[in-house]
Design goal:
The complex is a heterodimer. By secondary structure, chain A is of the alpha/beta class. Chain A has a domain of about 160 residues: 3-Layer(aba) Sandwich (Rossmann fold). Chain A contains nine helices and ten strands. The longest helix of chain A has 18 residues. Helices cover about 60% and strands about 5% of the residues of chain B. Classes of the chains: A alpha/beta, B mainly alpha.
C-alpha cells in the first residue's frame, strides 16, 4: 500500500479543511499552549513551554517550587497574558480576546481552584458558590438551589450558611471546589488544591474534585508539587526551571 | 513481620478457627499475598506447641470438624512484647532502586532520562494504588504505607539528582583506591598490588 492510497482512504477531509484545522485547536484538545514565555521583574518563570490538554484528560503539572508551574496555570486559564507564545483555550486564542471576553469564558466554561482562601469573605458559602451564576445573570433562587446542590455533592452542606472566616481549611476548599464546578465547566484548573490542608482533608478534597471532573468528562489541570496528587492524573508534565523537563503517561 | 505474631494478634480478638484467621489476615494486609491455609494450620500448631495458643473447643456442625483456638496468657504476653519492640528500620542501600540510582547518577548515564523513567514508573504504581477502593481510611493502612514509600523514593530521587547535578564531575570514588591509571605507576603489577593497597590505606589515614 502506497502512502497516497493511505491518505486517500480517509473520507471527507479535503486538503483545504486540513489547513484550516491546523490553525485551530487540534481535534480533542481543550488547551493548547505553545512557546509560552513569561518573566517577572527579577526572575524568568517560563522559557518557552508547550502544554496540550485533551478533552476528558487529567494532567498534572509538577515541579519544584519556582519552576514556573503556577505561572503556566495562570497563563493557561487566562488569568495572565504571557509575554510570548500562544494559548488556545476551548478554541479561543486568549491573546485575541479582551479582558471582558476572557472573564466571560472563564466564568462560563472554566473552573478555577486556588490554594488559599479565594472565597469572597463577605459572602456565605452558598452565596460564594452561586456567585458565578449570579454574575452571569441567572435568577437568584435557581442559582442558590444549584449552589446548595453542589455544596451537598462536595460534602459541605453543613457550612452553607457559614462565612469563610468561620470555616476550617478543608471546608473552605470544599466550597471552592463546589464553586469551580457549579457552572458545569469544560475545563478546571487547580493550583495546589490540597496545599494548605492536612493529608486526610487534602485527599478527600482532591478525590471529590477528580471524581466530579471525570464524571462530567471535563478536563483538569492540576498544578502540584505533591507526588500523591500527581498520581491522580492521566499524564504528568514536569517543569524544571521554566522548561518541560519530562512528560509521562500514567494511565 | 512473622506470620505467628500476626496470627497471635488476630487470636487476641477472641477464639477463632483457621478460616477466620486467614480472612482476618487477608483483610488487614489486603494488598499483600493471601495467607495460605496450610500456613495457618502450621502456625497454629506451632503456637499450641509453644503454649501461646490452645484449643478452645471443636465445632461439629453439619460439615467437617473445625478446631477453634484461643490465645493463652503467655500468648498475650508475647503479643504485647512484639508490639512494644520497635521494628528494625530498613538498612540503607538494600534496594535495587538505590543501587540503580547511585550508578546512573554517579556515572552520568543519562541522569535526566533515568530520573524521568523512574519517576513515571513510581507515579504509575502510585496511581494504581490510589485507585484501590477505600471503604474507610483504615482499610487502606497497608496501601497508604506503600504510597508513602513511593512518595519518599521520588523525593529522594529528586534531591539525589540535584546533588549530583551540582557536582557533575565526580563519581565520588577516590582514584588511587579504585584502580591504577595506566602510566601512573611503573613496575611489576602483581608485585605492586599488595604494596599499593597498604600504601593507599596509610595514605588515606594520614589524609583523614
Amino acid at each position: 500500500m502506497t502512502p497516497q492510497s493511505t491518505s486517500g482512504d480517509l473520507p471527507g477531509t479535503p486538503p483545504a479543511d486540513h489547513r484550516a484545522a491546523a490553525d485551530r485547536v487540534p481535534a480533542g484538545a481543550v488547551l493548547e499552549a505553545r512557546g509560552v514565555q513569561h518573566a517577572y521583574r527579577r526572575t524568568v518563570a517560563l522559557r518557552g513551554v508547550d502544554l496540550r490538554v485533551d478533552a476528558g484528560e487529567v494532567v498534572a503539572v509538577t515541579g519544584p517550587s519556582g519552576c514556573g508551574k503556577s505561572t503556566l496555570l495562570h497563563a493557561a486559564a487566562g488569568l495572565l497574558v504571557p509575554q510570548a507564545g500562544t494559548v488556545t483555550l476551548l478554541g479561543q486564542d486568549l491573546a485575541g480576546l479582551g479582558e471582558d471576553d476572557r472573564a466571560l469564558l472563564r466564568r462560563r466554561q472554566v473552573g478555577i481552584v486556588l490554594q488559599f482562601g479565594q472565597l469572597v469573605p463577605e459572602l456565605t458559602a452558598v452565596d460564594n458558590v452561586a456567585l458565578p451564576l449570579l454574575l452571569d445573570g441567572r435568577p437568584a433562587d435557581g442559582a442558590r438551589r444549584l449552589a446548595l446542590d453542589w455544596l451537598e455533592r462536595c460534602g459541605a452542606e453543613d457550612v452553607a450558611a457559614t462565612m469563610p472566616s468561620d470555616m476550617s481549611g478543608g471546608e473552605a476548599q470544599r466550597v471552592a471546589v463546589a464553586r469551580a464546578l457549579v457552572t458545569g465547566p469544560s475545563v478546571v484548573f487547580a493550583d495546589e488544591p490540597t496545599g494548605s490542608l492536612d493529608t486526610l482533608a487534602g485527599r478527600q478534597v482532591l478525590g471529590l474534585l477528580v471524581a466530579a471532573v471525570r464524571e462530567r468528562g471535563a478536563s483538569l489541570v492540576l498544578v502540584t508539587h505533591d507526588n500523591t496528587v500527581a498520581a491522580k492524573a492521566d499524564r504528568e508534565v514536569r517543569l524544571v526551571d521554566g522548561t518541560v523537563a519530562s512528560e509521562a503517561v500514567l494511565r | 513481620m512473622s506470620t505467628a505474631d500476626v496470627v497471635l494478634a488476630l487470636l487476641s480478638r477472641g477464639p477463632a478457627h483457621g478460616y477466620d484467621l486467614k480472612r482476618g489476615h487477608d483483610t488487614w494486609f489486603d494488598q499483600g499475598r493471601p495467607l495460605a491455609f496450610g500456613q495457618v494450620y502450621a502456625t497454629l500448631a506451632r503456637l499450641e506447641r509453644d503454649g501461646l495458643a490452645a484449643v478452645a473447643h471443636t465445632e461439629t456442625g453439619g460439615g467437617p470438624e473445625r478446631t477453634v483456638y484461643e490465645i493463652t496468657p503467655a500468648g498475650r504476653a508475647r503479643l504485647a512484647a512484639w508490639v512494644a519492640e520497635p521494628a528494625e528500620p530498613a538498612a540503607p542501600g538494600a534496594d535495587e532502586l538505590i543501587r540503580k540510582t547511585v550508578a546512573a547518577l554517579r556515572l552520568g548515564l543519562d541522569p535526566a532520562g533515568f530520573v524521568a523513567r523512574q519517576r513515571a514508573a513510581h507515579l504509575r504504581r502510585m496511581r494504581v494504588l490510589e485507585q484501590t477502593p477505600a471503604t474507610d481510611p483504615t482499610s487502606r493502612l497497608v496501601v497508604e504505607h506503600a504510597v508513602a514509600h513511593l512518595d519518599a523514593d521520588l523525593r529522594w530521587l529528586e534531591a539525589a539528582a540535584g546533588y549530583v547535578a551540582a557536582d557533575p564531575a565526580a563519581d565520588g570514588i577516590p582514584r588511587a583506591v579504585a584502580h591504577d591509571r595506566p602510566g601512573d605507576r611503573p613496575g611489576d603489577s602483581s608485585d605492586d598490588l599488595s604494596h599499593d593497597s597498604s600504601d593507599d590505606l596509610s595514605h588515606d589515614r594520614s589524609r583523614a
